[in-house]
Design a protein that fits this description.
This protein has 395 residues and is of the alpha/beta class. The protein is built from twelve helices and 14 strands. Isomerase that catalyzes the conversion of deoxy-ribose 1-phosphate (dRib-1-P) and ribose 1-phosphate (Rib-1-P) to deoxy-ribose 5-phosphate (dRib-5-P) and ribose 5-phosphate (Rib-5-P), respectively.
């Protein structure tokens, strides 16, 4: 069967157990969903994900979320082949463009040649310059930044340059302009960085600083066409919700919506579902990652999962027989693990349509490009050959 509309929903950082190559990333033993379930000691309630098969795809079910005898759809998991474990790597690979060459990372901070260019362009001093949790470094340096007008610049284990500033001290327009410049100087060949992230915050002092929804990601331009481009070129309507537009630098997106939060993102999904269109809606919900994974907060992570699950119930109720829902993630970010970085994990793969007559396992899919290949197959669009469609397995 082919579907009129496909909704691809990415639960940012919701991994489901260490990938076979996790040790290469020092991530052996990571398990985002498993450790969140353990933290809740049987009280994690996600009935809609459960009936879709979220525990059926695991060797050991999530604590408190037993596998169901007959899921309502198809379930499996995906294994990444990209060189990194960033959101860009995961999303690009899903859309048929694995990142095969490792991007630049900065475990010891940024080199002087990058910092001096940023200072000269912005006319502002740089403070920070180390791998750090965003909330921690803003709490530490935010008051200084407010007094001096300096830029807080930091990174993580991923290929990112993050630039933080108080919105009342450096206006958003200026912060974005600085980030755009930073983007222009790390596109290779010496340094190739995946994302420049503007991290504005507000608040009167270190005890009350809050990062705002005005975050903006300036992502490396896709190195070639992705599945979203192929869909758009074939006349298939494409919608991006959340940071999808940023991740693909606007390529291939006909209609885009910025998210203030997971729940705001689900509001956009509800809105798009009321529209009469044929096409692909690609959604990213980032709170799991930004608010809880990096902050190693399993309580908040689990509560966010339960809040999402309630909204998922509305989506399932509103689906039409010719709608297809695909739920996955771009990487892990285990809040019960060491450090503060993404974790190299399998990601869930759940597929559902009200028209399905059967259910079952999709097994382990690799690369992530199987996801995009399935979307292309549904709309009878040719891609670059990466990935294998599982459309025919959905009965």
């Amino acid at each position: 069967m082919t579907y009129k509309r496909v909704f691809g929903l990415v639960l940012d950082s919701v991994g489901t157990g260490a990938a076979p190559d996790a040790d290469k990333f020092n991530d052996g033993g990571a398990d985002t969903l498993g450790h969140v379930g353990e933290h809740f000691a049987g009280k994690l309630k996600i009935p809609n994900l459960q009936k879709l098969g979220i525990s059926n795809l695991r060797a050991v079910p999530i604590e408190g979320v037993p596998a169901v005898e007959k899921p309502i759809g198809y379930y499996g998991k995906m294994q990444e082949i990209s060189a990194g474990k960033d959101s860009m790597d995961g999303h690009w690979e899903m859309m048929g463009l694995p990142v095969k060459k490792a991007l630049s990372t900065f475990p010891n901070g940024f080199p002087e040649e990058i910092l001096s260019k940023l200072e000269k362009f912005s006319g502002r001093k740089i403070i920070g310059n180390r791998p750090e949790s965003g909330t921690k470094i803003i709490a530490e340096l935010g008051e200084q930044q407010m007094k001096t007008g300096d830029l807080i610049v930091y990174t993580s284990g991923d290929s990112v340059i993050q630039i933080a500033a108080h919105e009342d001290v450096i206006p958003l327009k200026e912060l974005y302009k600085i980030c755009e410049y930073a983007r222009s100087i790390v596109n290779g060949p010496e340094y190739t960085v995946g994302r420049i992230i503007a991290r504005p915050y507000v608040g009167p002092d270190k005890d009350h600083f809050t990062r705002t929804a005005n975050r903006h990601d300036f992502t490396l331009e896709p190195t070639s066409d992705t599945d979203i481009d192929f869909l758009q070129q074939a006349g298939v309507h494409t919608v991006g919700v959340g940071k999808i537009n940023d991740i693909f630098s606007g390529h291939g997106i006909d209609e885009g919506y910025h998210n203030e939060s997971n729940m705001d993102g689900m509001d956009h999904v509800d809105h798009v579902m009321t529209e009469d269109f044929t096409g692909f809606c690609f959604i990213n919900l980032v709170d799991f990652d930004a608010m809880y994974g990096h902050r190693r907060n399993p309580e908040g992570f689990g509560n966010a999962l339960m809040e999402f699950d309630k909204r998922l119930g509305t989506v399932l109720d509103n689906m039409k027989p010719d709608d297809l829902l695909l739920i996955t993630a771009d990487h892990g970010n285990d809040p019960g693990f060491r450090g503060t970085d993404h974790t190299r994990e399998f990601v869930p793969l759940l597929a559902y349509s009200p028209s399905m007559k059967e259910s079952g396992s999709l097994g382990i899919r690799s690369p992530f490009a199987d996801f995009g290949a399935t979307v292309l197959d549904n709309f009878k669009v040719s891609g670059n050959g990466n990935g294998q469609s599982f459309l025919d397995e959905l009965k």
